[in-house]
Amino acid sequence: MGRRQNVLKALGNSLGPRRLGKLGWLDGTTALVTGGGSGIGKGVVEAFLQEGARVGVLEIRPARVKELGKLGPSVAAVAGDVTSLEDNGRAVSQVVSKWGKLDTLVCCAGVFDGFTPLMDIPGEKLSAAFDELYGVNVKGYLFSTKAAIPELIKTNGTVIYTVSHAGYAAGGGGALYTSSKFAVRGLVKQMAHELAPQVRVNGVAPGGVLTDLRGIKTLGLHDRGLSSAEGVEERMKKGNPLRVAPKPIDIAWAYVYLASRPRSRIVTGATIQADGGTGARGLVRLSGLLDEEWRE
Question: Which residue in the list 168, 177, 255, 257 is annotated as catalytic?
Fold first, then answer.
């Protein structure tokens, strides 16, 4: 059984039989996904594998690293912390050592602030909460990019950052999370400028997604997954014009497009808003074709 067949069997993807024998969008490429052990990152890993890529993962939880190993020989996961430049460098080195190059860096690692308003964060915890959240959501992206730049220049590669609808509008998180995603949105522009023409840099901005995104320890939110709250799926559906509660794989295909050089080679400094149309919400009605019963 070949590499593609092994991957499809491991993923249990229903599209597998229809794809056998066909070229994938990412055949022959290698990628590194930070935070690839769960949530959107895991969805990206699975989609990249399905499209023929070989994928390295930097994941902080050893149990998730072990689970990733079950996806087959086209995955190389390493336990490490995105807030450590050394760990990021180790992950890049592992990908290059195993497969000879790095084509794509995808930054998905993130933490949440539980929608906590600034006024509700105790003053004595504010500095530590800022450092914890920005350490993962912003510094982690800078460190991953710093570690990967030399290899990405060699391959005319690409970087893909995970932004958020919270990087465009208020209310997608609290003061810390929202400001961190505005920072990442700015990072897309700045790094696209700095690394052109050799490396393309883009972003994907999901809206609400059914993931296990955890809150920060400083505020006692680390044991709560974002999608574990009661009724969260219905609230997501009612909050966007397309009435969807996306799963990670729904978002992952935007990353596949941006990683595919033949399909997005002239795209850089852009962010795809994969948010169910949240950015197109109306002021009076959620969307134009809703029935009367939905207008409450």
Answer: 177
Cα distances (angstroms) measured from residue 291 to each of 129, 203, 234, 237: 43, 34, 17, 15
Q: Report residues of the chain scoring pLDDT below 50.
A: 1, 8, 12-20, 294-296
Give the Cβ contact number of residue 168 at 10 Å.
Answer: 19
How many domains in the chain? 1
Residue 88 forms part of a structural domain: yes
Instruction: Please check whether residue 2 lies inside any domain of the structure.
Output: no
> Per the domain annotation, does 107 fall within a domain?
yes
Domain hosting 73: range is 22-273
- Cα(155)–Cα(150) distance, integer angstroms: 9
Which CATH number goes with the domain that contains 231? Answer: 3.40.50.720
- In-domain check, residue 89: yes
User: What's the pLDDT at 228?
Assistant: 61
168 tagged catalytic: no
Say what the pLDDT of residue 227 is: 61
pLDDT score at 69: 92
What's the burial of 247, exposed, middle or buried (CB within 10 Å: 0-12/13-18/19+)?
middle
Amino acid 296: pLDDT:
46
Contact, 82 vs 143, CB < 8 A?
A: yes
How many other C-beta atoms lie within 10 A of the C-beta of residue 171? 10
